[in-house]
Amino acid sequence: MSTTAPDYTLLDHTADLGIRVRGTDLKDLFESAGRALMHLMIRAEVPSKTQSIKISVSGEDLADLMVRWLGEILYLFAGEDVVVTSIRIGSISSAHLAATLETAPLEPEVHEILREIKAVTYHQIQVTETADGWEAIVIFDV
Amino acid sequence: MEIKLQKKDEYRWLIPKTGEMRVPGLVFSNSELIKTVEKDQSLVQVANVATLPGIVKHSLAMPDIHWGYGFPIGGVAAFDMEEGIISPGGVGYDINCGCRIMTTLLRVGEIRPMLKGLVSALFRNIPAGVGSRGAIRLSKADERKVAIEGSAWAVRNGYGQPEDLERTEDHGAMDGADPSVLSERALKRGIDELGTLGSGNHFLEIQVVDQIYDRQLAKDFHLYEGQVTIMIHSGSRGFGHQICDDFLKEMGKHVSVKGFQLPDRQLACAHLKSDLGRRYLAGMACAANYAWANRQVLMHLAHETLLATLAISPQDLGMELLYDVCHNIAKKELHEVEGNEITVCVHRKGATRSLPPGHPKVPEIYRHAGQPVLIPGDMGTHSFVLAGAQGAMEQSFGSTCHGAGRVLSRTKAVKMAKGRAIHRELEDKGIFVQSRGKRTLAEEMPDAYKDVSQVVEVVHQANLAKKVARLRPLGVMKG
Lengths: 142, 479
Prior knowledge:
- The complex is a heterodimer of chains A (142) and B (479).
- Chain A is of the alpha+beta class and 142 residues long.
- Helix content of chain A is 25%, strand content 43%.
- Chain A contains 2 helices and 10 strands.
- In chain A, β1 (8-12) and β2 (17-23) form a beta hairpin.
- In chain A, α1 (26-41) packs parallel to α2.
- The longest helix of chain A is centred in the middle third of the chain and has 19 residues, at 62-80.
- Chain A is globular and about 40 Å long.
- Chain B is α+β, with helices and mostly antiparallel strands and 479 residues long.
- Chain B folds into 2 domains: 6-93 and 331-360, no CATH class; 98-330 and 369-478, tRNA-splicing ligase RtcB (Alpha-Beta Complex).
- In chain B, 33% of the residues lie in helices and 26% in strands.
- Chain B has helices at 33-39, 42-49, 108-111, 115-125, 140-149, 151-156, 163-166, 184-190, 215-220, 237-258, 275-310, 314-317, 390-395, 410-417, 422-428, 440-443, 452-461, and strands spanning 6-9, 12-15, 25-28, 55-66, 73-80, 85-86, 98-107, 203-212, 227-234, 270-271, 320-326, 328-337, 340-349, 352-353, 372-375, 383-388, 399-400, 432-435, 465-478.
- In chain B, the strands form 4 sheets. In chain B, strands 7, 8, 9, 11, 15, 16, 18 and 19 form an 8-stranded mixed sheet that branches. Chain B has a 7-stranded mixed sheet with strand order 1-2-3-4-5-13-12, with helices on both faces.
- In chain B, α10 packs antiparallel against α11 (275-310).
- The two termini of chain B are 38 Å apart.
- Classes of the chains: A alpha+beta (142), B alpha+beta (479).
């Protein structure tokens, strides 16, 4: 992941791990959430060679879209051994987003796995507009 | 939502029916454990589960209850087959997470000098940790067979003995598994994860029987003081997680279509009779069977490792499966409700089946004693073997507790462990621990869990299961 840490805070839950993430707008919020997820799982230098992939995600509403979006990034890691190194969201609405991801294959010598996140849950999921932007609360199964 | 608990007696608390609740909640606990429960939101979750359509009798909580997503962990709920629902969140992501214990003929003194080497050897031979891949890479055809046949597939392919099947809940295979309902992603993840331990609270442990509570039951289970046992705690890996995830997403939509009023989105569910409900059950059974096959393969790998490292014959090691039981599952079972025996779908999320003596589903070798109930502790404390009791059939749909239950969040545990060498602290207690994940030891340290002996005492006193023996860890392999 990039050298600057994304803007998120850890929420303290007994059984699981939660984050509160903020963004200036929806694009920023979803990008930050994706970066926070990778930041929780992996520590690595920015790789020299990455592959660019485009993904689009649909959901019932913003909360569902958030769960599915993070679920896609997690699946790339857990199912395809692919690490997302940078995220750019091209377009976003309440039910759809399109993003370009820079990715690199997971390499145990390069990527230090910090913790396993097993799933993105719907539990207490929140995506809300605040006075100075947007905020989301997401709880992960670890 | 504020929960008003009514103390019924020393081991039972009632959550009276209020608001949208269809049935009352019933919590098994004691005066000390209930204090930690009241601090988190898990009692609200017990009440939330009580609002689900078709719930029968009570929304139940075992003494190890703690906050989960949707259903609490340590929650049990039975649903009517006609009106009721099935919920992936009521099973959990790790479908058929469970454990098995193997007895050996070894005594603690014989292996103590070799303990470090033994744990290291287990570590070399058994893939563990995040993203670990198995020693076995399945063909697509074999993966389908694993999903349908469970442990029997493993035994047929040389992993263990035919008699292991009788000593596994449901003979290591749940009926109704249908791989055609699974997503490409689930099938992809299942290809190379068989025979892997996983991470987090999953472990493989070398233990010693250090206390016997019931001499006759211990004899029935071939347990004696000073005996070395092996315990495996693992589940259906990414395969099961993907199946849960896929169906949660689909059921989320279903809920909005059917207009259920859910207090929490993670409680997404479908009617048992609906096509979606049936498909989830068929997919869940695939994951359950995969988990049984996984523990069967893990047992075989541990057996091979012990033989090679200790350089002894299989006869001298004398390793035998005591029992394998799951604690994350939903099952159609016969139970007596208001004087009638009816089929209900029992969700056990962090709860163990506990069948009494004489029950037809208890293996013949244990029928007179009751089903062995296996309760893993955390890595620094004891695990327990119990026997199923009649009270479980009367009070909790044949269910009891599943473990210690967390009291500290992982972040708090890591903070608390700062500056401490957890592995050294454990070594001082005679427990040798090796872990793959950097943070695992801190996150899983003993302080992070409830006192498992208290949890077990509650289920013993409430007659949900009987205490048989206590097992102390000697060597622990964590994911």
